[in-house]
Structures are given as structure tokens and as C-alpha cells.
Design goal:
Layout: H1 3-16, E1 20-24, H2 30-41, E2 44-47, H3 69-84, E3 88-98, E4 106-116, E5 121-129, E6 136-139, H4 142-151, E7 159-162, E8 172-175, H5 178-192, E9 195-199, H6 207-224, E10 237-243, E11 257-263, E12 270-274
Parallel strand pairs: 1-2, 1-3
Antiparallel strand pairs: 3-4, 4-5, 6-9, 7-8, 7-9, 10-11, 11-12
Helix pairs in contact: 2-6
Length: 292
């Protein structure tokens, strides 16, 4: 890091030191977020007691998420900041389903937002990971349930039992012992004939998800410390990835990344970083001309 860039980063850290950061969560996400924010930026982190973040949507469907994740996480953060009278807030929103490019692979998609009303600043970071136990099964067989539980990393990762995947009757959440799992299974099986078992994706019940949230928080921290070289405000981030890295053999442009374009959301200063992946030519194996 050169002296000028280091000076900009130090100025960002100095401006945040001692300020209070409100973390909007009821699922203990502050356990992996707060230490990073406190140690790096010198912030004093507190947890929002209201509103109930489940009002913005639950994984089990009792409350449907009405808006896309980007809108939901922003609304969640702003609602908590308003309720507590804070000008600095952070919230996260997780989504689970097929990976956006590896369609048959389940993924954990975590989105974090950092809002600074004092600086009129919003910074988002996203982490997508295929390391997730996200799954569910309909079963009436105890052995099948036990096999599913082991594959779901139970009991370190909690499970949920209910009547069916599409019904919210008799939901038992946060199951983290074999005795509790067996009791819940027979309670629902005797009542409905079968049970739907699923992974509990709430952060405090899912250590693997907590690690993905921490990775997203690290990305967010990097963005906060990346200040604009023109106006010095945080959040100077990549807004466009430009392809066209030349082929080593024929020299024609490939689909590989040639440069990253950074744009400041305040003064709109633009800066380009060529060869961000530390290579100036691409292997002919990835060239549409040399390897059609």
C-alpha cells in the first residue's frame, strides 16, 4: 500500500473511531460482525432491539419476504436506525437456493449493507458460497430422518420440523439434540402421518452460514476502507468489470477480465485498474479463436 493510499485509509478509520454502529439482527450476527467493525474502525457496536427483523421475512415462510434482498436489507437497516435514533447502521439478508451460475448446486447468498446518514453513504457487499447445508426432506421413517440429520451436520447445525414444506403448522425450530429431534418427529408423525425436516438457516443455529456472513463482513470492511482518491469518502468500489484480456497466442481479446472500473457514488470520480488479476495475457485454451 503506497503512502497516499495508506493516508486515505487512516483518515477513514479516524473519522469512524468512537461512533456507534447499530447492527440490525435478532439472530446473533453481531458475533461475527461486531469484532471486525470494532477492531478495524474503532466503532462501538450495539444490537437493535427493534423492530423485529422477522417482520421482513422468515426462512420458514410464516412471513413472506415481499421485496428483493437488496431492498429488504436496506429497509431493515433504515427501520432499525429510525427506531433507535442512530445515524450509522448495518444489516444483512441471506437467501438460499440454486447457485446463480452452478444451477444444481445449493448456495448461501449473503448481502450486507452499511448506511451512514451523516455522510449520506450506503455501501453493500455480497458473498455467495456453495458451502451450505441448506436442504429439506419429507419423511415418515426415523432412520431416513437420522441419515438426513447427519448429512445436514446435525446437531452442531440445528433442524426444523413441521407438517409439510408448504404449511406452517406446528413448526418446531432450533432442534439441536437427538432426543429433541426424535420427540418432535414422533409428535408430528402421529398427528400428520409424516414430517417435513429442514435445516434451520437462522444464523445463530447454523455455524456454516455464520462463516459466510463473516466473509461478507470482511468484504464490506474492505469497501468501507476503500476511499475515493478525489473526495476521500468511503465506498470507492468496482462498478464495472471489463473483459478483453488479449490471448497470449493470437492477441485477440478474450472474455477474461482486462480491467476493473471504479466509480465514486458521491463525486463520480472514475478510475481504471488494468490487469486486476495480475496477468496481462490469457492462456489460448480460453480464447474463442484459438480454441473455438
Amino acid at each position: 500500500m503506497n503512502g497516499c493510499l495508506l493516508c486515505i485509509v487512516m483518515n477513514v478509520i479516524a473519522e469512524y473511531k468512537g461512533r456507534t454502529l447499530l447492527i440490525a439482527t435478532k439472530h446473533r450476527k453481531e458475533m461475527v460482525i461486531a469484532p471486525l467493525m470494532e477492531q478495524t474502525l474503532g466503532l462501538n457496536c450495539i444490537v437493535a432491539e427493534e423492530p423485529d427483523t422477522d417482520l421482513f421475512g422468515t426462512f420458514t415462510g410464516e412471513t413472506a419476504r415481499r421485496d428483493p434482498p437488496q431492498v429488504t436489507v436496506r429497509n431493515k437497516c433504515l427501520a432499525a436506525m429510525e427506531a433507535h435514533g442512530c445515524d450509522l447502521g448495518l444489516a444483512s439478508e441471506g437467501s438460499f437456493g440454486p447457485h446463480p451460475s452452478l444451477f444444481f448446486v445449493p448456495a448461501d447468498d449473503e448481502l450486507l449493507i452499511f448506511i451512514d446518514k451523516k455522510k449520506n453513504l450506503e455501501i453493500m457487499a455480497r458473498e455467495i458460497s456453495t458451502d451450505t447445508n441448506f436442504n429439506g426432506i419429507d419423511t415418515s421413517d426415523e432412520v431416513e430422518l437420522e441419515d438426513f440429520a447427519r448429512r445436514a451436520r446435525f446437531p452442531s447445525h440445528s433442524l426444523i420440523l413441521r407438517k409439510s414444506k408448504t404449511e406452517n403448522l406446528d413448526i418446531i425450530k432450533g432442534i439441536n439434540s437427538w432426543k429433541e429431534l426424535k420427540n418432535g418427529f414422533y409428535l408430528l408423525k402421529n398427528k400428520y402421518g409424516k414430517v417435513y425436516a429442514e435445516t434451520d438457516m437462522r444464523a445463530m443455529c447454523n455455524p456454516t452460514r455464520m462463516l459466510v456472513i463473516r466473509s461478507a463482513a470482511e468484504k464490506l470492511m474492505k469497501k468501507i476502507c476503500s476511499a475515493c482518491p478525489s473526495c476521500q469518502l468511503p465506498g470507492f468500489d468496482v462498478t464495472e468489470v471489463v473483459s478483453g484480456l488479449p490471448c497470449e497466442r493470437c492477441g485477440f481479446p478474450t472474455c477474461s477480465t482486462l480491467l476493473h472500473r471504479f466509480t465514486c457514488q458521491h463525486c463520480f470520480h472514475v478510475q481504471e485498474l488494468r490487469f486486476p488479476n495480475n496477468k496481462q495475457v490469457e492462456n489460448p485454451a480460453f480464447c474463442d479463436w484459438c480454441n473455438p
